[in-house]
Amino acid sequence: MDPLAHPDRYLEPLARTLVAVHTTPPDTSPALAARAATDGADPGAVRARTADRLARARAELPLPAAGVRRWQSWLDDDRLWPGRLTLVHGDVHPGHTLVTRPRSGPPVLAGLLDWANAHVGDPAVDFVDLLYAGGPAVLDRLLAAYRAAGGDVRPGLREHVLARADFLWVHVALRGLDTGRPAWVETALRRMAP
After folding, report:
1. Per residue in 63-116, pLDDT tens?
2. To 10 degrees, the CA torsion angle through 7, 12, 18, 24?
3. Mean pLDDT lowest for which of 5-14, 37-46, 112-121, 136-145?
4. Most buried among 75, 106, 149, 163, using CB within 10 Å?
5. Does residue 36 fall inside a structural domain?
6. 3-state secondary structure of 146
7. Residue 180 — left, alpha, or beta (φ > 0 → left; ψ -120 to 50 → alpha)?
8. pLDDT at 2 (0 to 100)
9. 3-state DSSP call for residue 148?
10. Count of CB atoms situated within 10 Å of the CB of 37
11. Domain for residue 2, yes or no?
12. What is the CATH number of the domain that holds 81?
């Protein structure tokens, strides 16, 4: 389903769903609350873990200098980072959305699948894969629908999502190192190349 073809049937319901997820108190799930306590789920800890990943990647991978400067600038910019964490799905992309086909009319979003990556974290993570799936136009429409549905579109959120998307390849490269998948590392490094 093309997210822009019928935004009222896909992006708008997805935005309402994300608002519901992001406003659900994390302590409603004992497992998520316990994981948040163990992971140090506060905005500073999330940012520090991201900085640690960049430091590790710099030590173990031939990262492009321009990328390192961009990522460090993002890490250093206080206005881009959330002041609070929320419940997040953690892996929102078209493949994890359930779309139904009514007897008449276009398909419609019916729900989110695969909650294995749900955690208390930076709500921006739930926008990154949709950016990859549809580009900046989809991100902009989704953020507008999210705001209209009552979501907190704080100043700098769009820029933060773009930076998270750019940094995703650092995660992929490190995952490749950790799991013995050199093809992942090679792909990630190619995607990071200027």
Report:
1. 999 999 999 999 999 999 999 999 999 999 888 998 888 888 877 888 899 988
2. -170
3. 37-46
4. 163
5. yes
6. helix
7. left
8. 64
9. helix
10. 11
11. no
12. 3.90.1200.10
Both structure tokens of 165: 């998307």
- Domain count for the chain: 1
Main-chain phi, psi angles of 74, to 5 degrees: -60, -45
Q: Which residue range forms the structural domain that includes residue 160?
A: 11-192
**Are the C-beta atoms of 6 and 106 separated by less than 8 Å?**
yes
**CA distances from residue 119 to 13, 40, 139, 161 in whole angstroms, order as listed:** 21, 11, 22, 17
DSSP class of residue 122 equals: -
Average pLDDT over residues 176-193: 97
Q: How far apart are CA 73 and CA 160, in angstroms?
A: 11
**C-alpha span between 29 and 147 (Å, rounded):** 26
Block residue for tokens 């948040």: 36
